[in-house]
Specification:
single chain; about 200 residues; alpha+beta; 3-stranded mixed β-sheet; elongated
Length: about 200
């Protein structure tokens, strides 16, 4: 296969995104790749990440490519998990305590941190609106996170999300309660559930 054909194939498989690492891992030199990017007018999104002209920019996916240590959470996870139909005004992510997130904050990303023992709790793969796989928290973890951060989030958003969750066929109340206990929001969650059940 010609190098240019291989690059087109990789580009197509990744919805117009080419990463230097992926290209080099496929045996194409950086020199050839950079010439291809220049000649085909790719946009440099970040260090080692390029977007083909006329490609739709999947902001969530590009953010995840740039910052490996994030998991989409809170309002963004509500949206990705279909617990709200309101697209968030600001992306929200969670990182491990100690992660340097100054670059995220500078880009108007709302960042929460949590100790590493709880960081992976409820983490799943979910598709972005652009069809890319993202790391996100499941519905149960997201509802608990919203309760933990209730002073920074509109309570109406939580109330709508919990109502949507209770209507869902995939709800898992035992898992929700287990997460609530681990994240220390069990008492307040029970109050909401008593009203809805």
């Amino acid at each position: 296969m010609l190098k240019s054909d291989l690059l087109k194939k990789i580009q197509k498989e990744n919805n117009g995104i080419l990463r230097t690492k992926t290209v080099v891992d496929n045996g194409i030199s950086r020199t050839y790749f950079m010439e291809y990017v220049r000649k085909n007018k790719f946009e440099k999104i970040s260090q080692g990440i390029y977007l083909a002209p006329n490609s739709w920019t999947d902001g969530l996916y590009l953010l995840q490519l740039r910052f490996k240590g994030i998991i989409f959470s809170h309002e963004t996870a509500l949206y990705l998990g279909d617990l709200t139909d309101r697209e968030p005004l600001q992306y929200t992510v969670t990182v491990k305590t100690g992660y340097n997130y100054s670059a995220l904050s500078q880009q108007n990303i709302k960042v929460y941190s949590i100790k590493k023992e709880l960081y992976e709790l409820g983490a799943i793969q979910i598709l972005s609106p652009g069809g890319h796989e993202l790391r996100c928290y499941n519905a149960e973890r997201t509802l608990c996170d919203i309760l933990r951060s209730r002073n920074n989030i509109e309570i109406q958003d939580f109330q709508n999300a919990i109502k949507n969750y209770m209507k869902s066929k995939s709800k898992n109340i035992p898992l929700l309660m287990r997460y609530a206990k681990e994240l220390h929001v069990e008492a307040i969650l029970r109050k909401y559930l008593e009203v809805l059940m």
